[in-house]
Amino acid sequence: MMGINDGQHLSLLRKIARRAMIERGLLPDFSPRALAELENIHGPATKAEEAVRDLRHLPWCSIDNDDSRDLDQLTVAEAMPGDSAKVLVAVADVDALVKKDSALDEHAHQNTTSVYTAAETFPMLPAKLSTDLTSLNYESERFAVVVEMIVAKDGSLQKSDVYVALVRNQAKLAYNSVAAWLDNAGPMPSEIGSVPGLAETLRLQDRVAQQMKTLRHEHGALTLETIEARLVFDDGELKDFEAEKKNRAKDIIEDFMIAANGVTARFLASKSLPSLRRIVRTPKRWDRIVELASEHGFTLPSEPDPKALEQFLIQARASDPLRFPDLSLSVIKLLGAGEYVVEQPGGTSDGHFGLAVADYTHSTAPNRRYPDIITQRLLKAAIEGHSPPYGNDELAALATHCTEKENAAKKVERQVRKSAAALLLEPRIGEQFDGVITGAAEKGTWVRIFNPPIEGRLTSGFEKMDVGHRLRVQLVSADVQRGFIDFRKVG
Questions:
Q1: Cis peptide before 452, with omega less than 30 degrees from 0?
Q2: Residue 3: pLDDT band by 50, 70, 90 thresholds?
């Protein structure tokens, strides 16, 4: 971009991010009413001690990104007879301080999610709450909604319960260092060694998570592995797009959260309360997934079959691990987006095609997702034996609203990522790259180049191209303000 100096990249992207928030109907700032309400909150929630269980003695820990400050959940595991294990997931009690229909709740309801752009994070709740008073911070005593699960050695759930407890985070851990230690590729993080019994419980959590994952995949959960690109800044100047990948520590949290979300849905059903479910419907573009498998020498049935798709994905990853993330991205695009729906007690859910679970709600990230606050309020009503805090029509409207706003937030994040990508690629107009088609519809054809992992529009040569096709492209133009990147097919 002409005239931009080093150090101005971050400032420019912040302006683009705030503009994108407003254009998508999202609030970049908290209202004066919400901030005034915040001023009157002076400490974490308190309850009568006899009303909750005291689990502060357990070796709880958080595992998150290196720079995460909004800690929504803690985990701990305990060995049980017969090679089974008790797994506990503690979820921050956000509802204790953010009351329904309050000014803070209205802001959270409007945006429905924290928006994580490359330039700036727009938190759903103010930092005083999300990174402090409602965050399960290191050495802080907090009330939490605890999901307790007894897991058999084959990864199946034997029994479960949900209740409120007092907990204390004894170690704040990061994904990459924990994963390196679990893989014997790095030292034990010092935080683990300083807490008696924590190393053992983490090894147990790792084993149980892998068992749960194996069982889910046997039931048709999909092995998908995409490349997440993280922007790298140096003193305000954008330097690179850096690929991030899954690891074993992320698997622990992912598998425990999937299990906890299933327990939550079934717990509400058992108490005859409705729930807000997260579903991914049966894919509409199954025919193209069948084609994609055929191009890799694998035959899929003509009707959607998650188990058959999983077998294809396993084979594809084994035969070409380097290119598997690109295939995964193609499959994800063809599966389609998720949405929120209401399920009444005794009703039937469409389930989640990609996770191979029928009962799935969002409940484990209430500091950054509004559906999780809704679910938490329903859970607490169920635990306390109260009537649900939402009527059926209100819940149905919330499900639609949360789906729409979550999609809007993703578009904001994508807009800023595209502007950042245009900023990075602008000096390279005319260069050629290898890529893969990630979208093909009437409104346009999209290609993602491999290095750096950036997506743009294919403006020529897109005839007969479809999702998953590989090609060589040339960078034609890059518009930072609009986030437009155009390629043309070559060769």
A1: yes
A2: very low
Angle formed at CA 85 by CA 270 and CA 359, multiple of 5 degrees = 30
pLDDT value of residue 243: 67
Domain residue ranges in the chain: 9-271, 429-491
Euclidean distance between CA atoms 241 and 230, whole angstroms: 6
Q: Among positive and negative, which fits the CA dihedral 321, 323, 328, 329?
A: positive
The residues with which 449 forms a beta bridge, in sequence order, are: 435, 454
Strands 53-54 and 157-168: what pairing? parallel
Measured N-to-C along each axis, helices 175-182 and 198-218 cross at an angle, to the nearest 10 degrees, of: 90
Select from 232, 253, 286, 284 the least CA-distant residue to 179.
253
User: Which structure tokens are listed for 148?
Assistant: 């307790």
Q: Which tokens belong to 485?
A: 């990147």
Q: What is the pLDDT of residue 51?
A: 65
Residue with tokens 């299990």: 259
DSSP states of 180-237: HHHTTSSPPPHHHHTSTTHHHHHHHHHHHHHHHHHHHHHTT-----PPEEEEEEETTE
The residues, ordered by sequence, that sit 6+ positions from 309 with a Cβ below 8 Å of its Cβ are 220, 222, 289, 293, 300, 331
Mind giving me the DSSP string for 79-137?
E-GGG-EEEEEEEE--TTTS-TTSHHHHHHHHH-B-EE-SS-EE-SS-HHIIIIITS--
Query: Which alpha helices (DSSP H) does 303-461 contain, by range?
Result: 306-319, 324-335, 370-384, 392-425
**Taking the model in full, what pTM does it have?**
0.87
DSSP codes, 396-415: HHHHHHHHHHHHHHHHHHHH
Residue with structure tokens 């329904």? 100
CATH number of the domain at 429-491, please?
Answer: 2.40.50.140
Look at residues 104, 118, 128 and name the one whose alpha carbon lies nearest to residue 15.
Answer: 118
Q: If you ran DSSP here, which 8-state letter would residue 387 be given?
A: P
Strand pairing report for 172-174 and 62-64: parallel
Percent of the chain at pLDDT exceeding 70: 92
| DSSP, res 31 | -
pLDDT digits (tens, 9 = 90+) for 311-368: 888 888 888 876 787 788 888 888 878 889 898 887 766 666 666 566 778 899 999 9
